[in-house]
Amino acid sequence: MVWAKRRWFCLEPACTRGTLWESTEQVPRYARSTTRLREQVVSAVITSGRAASEVARAHGVSWWLVQAALAAAAVVLPAVDDVPVTRLGIDEHRYRTVRWFRTDQGASRRFEPWMTTLVDLATGQVLGIVDGRDPAAVGDWLGQRSEPWRERIEIVAIDPSAAFRKALRDYLPRAAVSVDKFHLVKLGNDMVTTVRQRLTRIHRGRRGRKDDPAWAHRMLLLRGADTLTPRAWERLEHVFRTDHPTDELSAAWGIKEKLRRLLTTDTLAQAWDERMRMGYFAQIANMPEAIKLYDTVVAWWDAIEVLIVSGATTARVEAANTGIKNIKRTGRGFRNAENYRTRILLTSAARTVA
Predict the structure, then answer these.
(1) At what angle do helices 248-263 and 301-310 cross, to 10 degrees?
(2) Can you tell me the mean pLDDT for 142-155?
């Protein structure tokens, strides 16, 4: 449908406007499309997860109209300070692929475009997206929040990141910090992998190959003991018995399991006992990788205690990051960070309401 708007001229000299255009509720002043069309393109992009360019082609409009409708919808989102948040989650993700740049001195410099996601752990709604993953990036966002909003935060869940902890210490000093269980278990798995690689280089003088039992069953080494079947136990014992008879690999695997048992305890007393056992086995093993892991547990012990008591993890943040990656894939990458941020906030808000 094409509507030819009529333009009215006012001959009254005292009139401040001079001209008036016809308008309706569906077609406001200065609008070149109906309100219903703009709502449909926003719903197609946000609810259906389609690319803005594809929605523009399907509706016979320009990409600029679709993007303008998305920007207008983002303006009416509730302010962050109006959202009652008591538990906050923070984690990072890559905004674009890693790139290399040539400096003025002729050297190559690696650039990783990181963004940090801040999520309400109660609802999973994305509250903010900031550039970078350093204390300044997170601190600036927290500093823009009102004092009552920051005072309301009770627990903040993060990965073992010293940068995030520094920002929280400066801007949320009363909030308890909880370290994520998944990232701690990953540190234990990384320790086992590092020990396996070191032993292979020492005893075989090369990297692992598919003929080596430890390399062939490298994923089995990362599984939890409570998930192993009898057949898996036999294969694991075969690896420890034949590939690395020095027992260093089995010791590293046992220390990793001590960490997993520590994170599954129900009380602080049980957690302390498991920590003592883990420290004892780390000292007996006398491996630098195990000592480093135990030192990390000691350094983050206060946050581990908060995790055991509250159970606060970054699971909802990781779920939000998964949705963010889908948005990035749908758009084939975003060159405009503001458009990327708009899509994330609108999609998260619509998912939370649903």
Answers:
(1) 50
(2) 94
What SS3 state is found at 177? strand
Residues in the chain: 354
pLDDT range class, residue 22, cuts 50, 70, 90: confident
Whole-model pTM above 0.85?
no
Tell me how far the alpha carbon of residue 173 is from its chain's centroid: 23
Place of tokens 């899509």: 343
Closest by CA to 116, choosing from 315, 333, 339, 341, is 341
CA distances from 13 to 7, 10, 21, 223, 304 (A): 18, 8, 18, 83, 75
Which element (helix H / strand E) includes 88?
Answer: strand 87-94
Residues with Cβ < 8 Å from 202, sequence gap 6 or more? none
Which of 150, 185, 148 is closest to 293 using CA atoms? 185
User: Which residues on neighbouring strands pair with residue 158, listed in sequence order?
Assistant: 179
The answer to whether 93 and 114 have CB atoms below 8 angstroms apart is yes
Least Cα distance to 345 among 118, 154, 84, 184 occurs for 118
